[in-house]
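Q: Give me the 3D complex with 2-acetamido-2-deoxy-beta-D-glucopyranose.
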Amino acid sequence: MHIFCAAFPFALLIPVCCSAATSQMWEEWKTQHNRGYSNQTEAALRRAIWEKNLLLVLTHNQEASAGKHSFVMGLNHLADMTAEEINERLNGLKLEEPLRFRNGTFNDAASLSIPESVDWRERGLVGPVRNQGSCGSCWAFSSLGALEGQMKKKTGVLITLSPQNLVDCSIPDRNFGCNGGFITKSYSYIIRNRGVDSESFYPYEHQNGKCRYSDKGKAAYCSDLHILPQGDEAALQAAVASVGPIAVAVNAMLSSFQLYKGGLYNVPDCNPVLINHAVLVVGYGTDGGQDYWLVKNSWGTDWGEGGFIRMARNKKNLCGIATLGVYPIL
Ligand SMILES: *[C@@H]1O[C@H](CO)[C@@H](O)[C@H](O)[C@H]1NC(C)=O
Ligand SMILES: *[C@@H]1O[C@H](CO)[C@@H](O)[C@H](O)[C@H]1NC(C)=O
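A: Here is the predicted complex, encoded as structure tokens.
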């Protein structure tokens, strides 16, 4: 899409210089993302935000082609929302408790020979990319992603699990449904409940609902959880290599993350303390001399590299990728 106006000498001036072209892009974007607005005021507001994001994306991508950035941005389905709105609606990770409870070191770290790169997708431990919609349920997708991997390792079958089950039923464990939750408390619920249903039995509705768990749909369980040492990327690497996909939290507050399109996400000012979004580390590797984490998001396949992002690794815990790593123990 950034090619659209590239023939103009001053691409940065697009909203001023070629509003007809911008209008056409806006119409195309709305069609592509099936967007309609309830009234003129709302439509004008959304277009203004979208144009701001357009400018941001064009500027960034121009800098990227000049070699200033290792990733590009794009006008995905979130492009008519402000960063604040996305943080409020989608990034519902709660934090206070996990920071108090840590299981300390990843014990096997020293004794393992750790491979240079890992991609659990190749080993069938990673299910299809999901879309949480306008519901702060990232914590449910993230925690279930790690559990799906452990179940596949144990049973040989990869079954997509039900985030709706967690959204509706883990309120007593002090999760807040679409208003946010904890990775650790997802597992507390599954341990207490002695199971969690499959997605096919208990489908996702992207809104809060009444708890409808049934043993009939049970597709996974766990008996304990392990919290990795805070901020330790070596321990996270060892855990990813030997355990499988690990539920983590990241700072997803920046527009560069929200409108990430592809490449190696490396934003030095991405604060590792301000983590607000739960995702799943499914591997790691090195590209062009830069180490990266391979991360699965729950914002659909339109976002990033088919729903995944490669985030800089061994860059002082960039975006807090190793601030809160958790996995379930069957
Ligand atoms: C326009 O739509 C928005 C979003 O649905 C709503 O909040 C607002 O009240 C509406 N304004 C008018 C004038 O109808
Ligand atoms: C890790 O810590 C959590 C939270 O305190 C606890 O529930 C869990 O049993 C611990 N797991 C292990 C393996 O020590």
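A quick observation: The first helix runs from residue 14 to 17.
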